[in-house]
Amino acid sequence: MAMRLVAGFPDNYTVEGTVTAGTAIADGDILDVSGNVLQRATSSSTIHTIFGVAAETITTADNRIKVIPFCQGQLWEVDTANNTDSTELYESMALTDHDTVSNTDTDVTGPTGVFFCLALVGATGNQKLLGEFTRLQSTST
User: Fold this and answer.
1) Does the chain have fewer CB atoms within 10 Å around its N or its C terminus?
2) pLDDT digit string (tens) for 62-111?
C-alpha cells in the first residue's frame, strides 16, 4: 500500500507532472522534485524536495504522472521499515525509500525529517503510522 491519504484534500484531487524517463512508479509511492521533474523519493529526500504521492501506477514508457500534492492539514497512513511502538509518537522521521518511513525511535531534526508521527495505526508492531508530511516548498535552507 505504501502511503494512503486518510484526511485533508480528497484523494481524487491530483495534479499532473513530468517524471524522470525510464522509471516505473507505483500508486502510493512518494515523489520528490529533481530539477523540473518528479522522481521516486529516497532516504536523502528533504522537506525542500518532497512533493507528493503518486495517484496512479505508470510504466517506464510513461513521462507524466498524476500526483496528490502534500498540503497542510492532510493526514497520511504510512508503511514503516520497522515495528511500531509508542516511543515514535511526536517524532519527525526520514524516509527509508519511496514507499516506507524510517521509524528508528530517533527524532530527525534536520531537513530529512519529512514525516511527523501523530499516532500508531492498529496494534503495536503493526508497521503503520498516522501523521503528516512536512514540506517547506522552498529549495533554500
Assistant:
1) C
2) 999 999 999 888 999 999 988 888 888 999 999 999 999 998 888 898 99
SS3 41: coil
The number of angstroms, rounded, from the C-alpha of 77 to the middle of its chain's C-alpha atoms is 10
Neighbouring residues of 49: CB distance < 8 A, sequence distance ≥ 6: 32, 33, 34, 41, 139
Q: To 10 degrees, the CA torsion angle through 122, 124, 126, 127?
A: 120
| Overall pTM > 0.85 | yes
Q: How many residues does the chain have?
A: 141
Cell of 118: 501523530
In order of 31, 95, 118, 120, 121, the CA distances from 43 in angstroms are 12, 5, 21, 22, 23
**Per-residue pLDDT reduced to its tens digit, 26-65:** 999 999 998 889 999 999 999 999 999 999 999 999 999 9
Cβ proximity of 131 and 108 under 8 Å: no
Q: 55 in the Ramachandran plot: left (φ > 0), alpha (ψ -120 to 50) or beta?
A: alpha
Beta carbons of 128 and 84 less than 8 angstroms apart: yes
